[in-house]
């Protein structure tokens, strides 16, 4: 089992990389988004990325960390604007070759696997 911490400029870049590596597939589902006055379900197509068997995917996205407080006791934030995703799985050599260029080694990961 290998953990990878990935970073791309955008969510779309990450999505494309994960699909190309076979880590996720894009699937469309019908989701209930409301009801009519007659209590009939209102359905809408929703597209989601679904991990393929054997992989766990944690989409973090951009985030901020509190790194201190100013004189008014307001938090000082350090922003991480790129798109971040954590992966866990048994990767093939081909998958690692596609994903390693996006890999980063955080000194303290924002989220970790339990």
Question: Which structural traits does this protein have?
Answer:
114 residues; mainly beta; three-stranded antiparallel β-sheet; two-stranded antiparallel sheet; 2 helices; 7 strands
What does this structure look like?
The chain has a domain at 2-25 and 53-102. The chain is flat. The longest helix has 10 residues, at 11-20. With 114 residues, the protein is mainly beta. It is 15% helix and 48% strand.
Short description:
The radius of gyration is 18 Å and the shape is flat. The protein is mostly beta strands.
Strand order of the largest sheet: 1-7-4
The residue fraction in helices comes out at: 10-25%
**Compute the gyration radius: what is it?**
18 Å
Listing every helix as H and every strand as E from the N terminus to the C terminus, the arrangement reads EHEEEEEEH
How would you describe the shape? flat
Number of strands: 7
Task: Identify low-pLDDT runs.
Answer: none
What structural class is derived from the secondary structure elements? mainly beta
Beta strand %: over 45%
Separate helix tally:
2
The description of the largest β-sheet is:
3 strands, antiparallel
Q: Quote the average pLDDT.
A: 93
Distance between the termini: 13 Å
Topology:
Blueprint: E1 2-8, H1 11-20, E2 24-35, E3 41-51, E4 55-59, E5 63-69, E6 75-80, E7 83-89, H2 93-99
Antiparallel strand pairs: 1-7, 2-3, 4-7, 5-6
